[in-house]
């Protein structure tokens, strides 16, 4: 450790040439720097006066920075170190850290907050991305049972496989919940919030020091304000946020351009998540077994086994519902699904290296439409012709459909059009039987959806027959295109779950003669819910009521989750 030559604050990064320091020395010990938020009543603030701890924190931070030779704080890593030990103590107090607690600390840096956590009696698991700082903090505390430091990027950190065993081993509480306390690099705060808030099974509270602006925004629970954003839906769904107090920028070295603030999130357990059904329904969105992961932008010929293998790396896959170009993956554990989403979203996959879209399905599909909703609410007028979707468009032949449907009566015609088909019976009663029997059934590994066609061929004007006419003149398709609940709609892009993402790959409009079928299946008007092809382009949507209670649902359609991450 480099010795301190005087009691006055040394340069935090001793330069080989003292005459030309690369950075200004840190400021003198700061005056009281906690101030209440000026931003209105929804953000209660705590006024904390600075105390003698100020200089202690200051000196130990500077000493640490000097301890392993010259260290230039890295802006890209948000390295603004805390100089005021009082702030650290307040962070610890806000999380109620006490004897026997296990704490995940993100970015220990020089170890000043780590020190306060250890002093409170906690066992600390610290994740530090910067190798230099990880070594520095190890040096500072030496080997102790109560501290584990790993060098890793928190945004890529597998909490369940790396942290849970530690928690199991170290927690002395029966509840086995850990806490998160961190003076976070400002640039990853939303990533961290998104990563950890859904982990109410692991963490009870998360207390973060982040940019004041961000803290104010995240703590905003009032849906009525114009500032209310998708991230607020997320935050309030998974936690109870509370703005604690502001921390002025002069408390950090180097001094950032903005002030910081401390915010706490009391994490909810799955059972506490707001219900997402109608008021009559008590269904909750977060039941792990019920909510599949949407995996979009797949090759049309992607195989179920490939998807199983892919997701199987992150946990047990209960089942995979393959659709055309997308799939729903049911994982046994919600945390494994979270991990899969985290790892696989936007990863290139398949022969053509498409970028996957992986995210939680936007609707609780457990309503079991497949099992209990056999008919389209939009199209209840029985016809002799059935409209079939969701079969494998590459491998399904007319004869496969015939075989699948002919047990219900005499079929007069089967027509496949890209990835939808019409099956016409001679008798309407047979069509009804077939609809009841085949909707939600499996054909060549795909769960198909069946509903009545809007009209029968023989109802068409001038004795229309699709077999005699060109595709473009098909009244069936014209009819469907015109409906708001259209399964064909307006030609959205493939694999983009309706957030305006996924533009890298265009999708020909079905109705306009694109050469590869990626129909726009409309928006959530699917009578079959989970089984309709429209899910391929857009995961099912909640109704307005549900959206309010569900993270991500109030996103404007043109906005992307990527943007959400950048907030
Ligand atoms: C704002 S500093 C806080 C340091 C220290 N806790 C303090 O209070 O002085 C942020 C710390 O997080 C580390 N860090 C930055 N990005 C990280 C990441 N993705 N994962 C883990 N640590 C990260 C930085 O290297 C730095 O040490």
UniProtKB/TrEMBL annotation:
Residues 291-363, 384-455 form the RRM domain. Residues 1-44, 362-384, 458-567 are annotated as: Disordered. CDD domains: AdoMet_MTases, RRM1_AtRSp31_like. PROSITE patterns: RRM, RRNA_A_DIMETH, SAM_RNA_A_N6_MT. It comes from the Eukaryota. It comes from Leersia perrieri. GO terms for cellular component: nuclear speck; spliceosomal complex. This is rRNA adenine N(6)-methyltransferase. Keywords: Methyltransferase, mRNA processing, mRNA splicing, Nucleus, Phosphoprotein, Repeat, RNA-binding, rRNA processing, S-adenosyl-L-methionine, Spliceosome, Transferase. The keyword Chloroplast does not apply. It is found in: Nucleus speckle. InterPro entries: KsgA/Erm, Nucleotide-bd_a/b_plait_sf, RBD_domain_sf, RRM_dom, rRNA_Ade_Mease_Trfase_CS, rRNA_Ade_methylase_Trfase_N, SAM-dependent_MTases_sf. Pfam families: RRM_1, RrnaAD. Residues 458-482, 490-515, 532-567 have a biased composition (Basic and acidic residues). Residues 9-19, 26-41 have a biased composition (Pro residues). Belongs to the class I-like SAM-binding methyltransferase superfamily. rRNA adenine N(6)-methyltransferase family. SMART domains: rADc, RRM. It is an enzyme of class 2 (transferase). Its main location: nucleus. S-adenosyl-L-methionine binds at residues 80, 82, 107, 128, 153, 183. GO terms for molecular function: RNA binding; rRNA (adenine-N6,N6-)-dimethyltransferase activity. The keyword rRNA processing applies. Its EC number is 2.1.1.-.
């Amino acid at each position: 450790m480099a010795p301190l030559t005087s009691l006055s604050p040394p340069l935090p990064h001793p330069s080989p040439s003292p005459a030309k320091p690369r950075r200004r020395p840190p400021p003198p010990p700061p005056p009281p720097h906690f101030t209440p938020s000026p931003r209105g009543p929804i953000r209660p603030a705590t006024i904390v006066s600075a105390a003698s701890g100020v200089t202690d924190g200051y000196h130990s931070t500077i000493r640490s920075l000097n301890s392993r030779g010259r260290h230039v704080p890295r802006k890209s890593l948000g390295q603004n170190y805390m100089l005021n030990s009082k702030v650290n103590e307040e962070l610890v107090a806000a999380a109620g850290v006490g004897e026997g607690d296990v704490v995940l600390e993100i970015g220990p840096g020089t170890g000043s907050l780590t020190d306060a956590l250890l002093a409170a009696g906690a066992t600390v698991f610290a994740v530090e991305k910067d190798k230099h700082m990880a070594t520095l903090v190890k040096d500072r505390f030496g080997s102790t049972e109560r501290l584990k430091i790993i060098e890793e990027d928190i945004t890529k950190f597998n909490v369940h496989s790396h942290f849970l065993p530690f928690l199991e081993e170290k927690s002395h509480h029966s509840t086995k919940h850990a806490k998160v306390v961190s003076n976070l690099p400002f640039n990853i705060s939303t990533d961290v919030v998104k990563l950890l808030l859904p982990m109410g099974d692991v963490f009870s509270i998360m207390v973060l020091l982040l940019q004041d602006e961000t803290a104010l925004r995240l703590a905003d629970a009032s849906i009525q304000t114009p500032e209310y954003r998708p991230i607020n839906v997320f935050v309030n769904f998974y936690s109870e946020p509370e703005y604690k107090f502001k921390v002025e920028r002069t408390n950090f070295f180097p001094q950032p351009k903005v002030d910081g603030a401390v915010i706490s999130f009391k994490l909810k357990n799955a059972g506490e998540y707001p219900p997402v059904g109608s008021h009559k329904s008590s269904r909750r969105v977060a039941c792990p077994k019920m909510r599949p992961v949407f995996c979009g932008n797949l090759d049309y010929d992607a195989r179920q086994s490939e998807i199983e293998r892919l997701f199987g790396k992150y946990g047990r896959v209960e089942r995979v519902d393959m659709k055309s170009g997308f799939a729903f993956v049911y994982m046994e554990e919600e945390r494994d699904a979270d991990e899969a989403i985290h790892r696989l979203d936007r990863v290139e996959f398949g022969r053509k290296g498409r970028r996957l879209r992986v995210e939680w399905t936007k609707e609780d599909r457990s309503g079991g439409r497949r099992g209990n909703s056999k008919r389209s609410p939009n199209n209840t007028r029985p016809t002799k012709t059935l409209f079939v979707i969701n079969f494998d468009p590459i491998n399904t032949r007319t004869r496969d459909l015939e075989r699948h449907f002919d047990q219900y009566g005499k079929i007069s015609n089967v027509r496949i059009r890209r990835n939808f088909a019409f099956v016409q019976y001679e008798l309407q009663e047979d069509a009804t039987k077939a609809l009841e029997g085949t909707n939600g059934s499996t054909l060549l590994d795909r769960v198909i959806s069946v509903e009545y066609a809007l009209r029968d061929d023989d109802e068409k004007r001038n004795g229309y027959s699709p077999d005699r006419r060109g595709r473009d003149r098909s009244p069936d398709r014209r009819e469907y295109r015109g409906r708001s609940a259209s399964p064909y709609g307006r030609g959205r892009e493939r694999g983009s779950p309706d957030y305006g993402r996924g533009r890298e790959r265009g999708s020909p409009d079905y109705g306009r003669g694109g050469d590869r079928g990626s129909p726009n299946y409309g928006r959530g008007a699917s009578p079959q819910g989970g089984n309709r092809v429209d899910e391929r382009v857009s995961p099912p949507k909640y109704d307005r009521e549900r959206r309010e209670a569900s993270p991500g649902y109030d996103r404007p359609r043109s906005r992307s989750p990527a943007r959400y991450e950048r907030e």
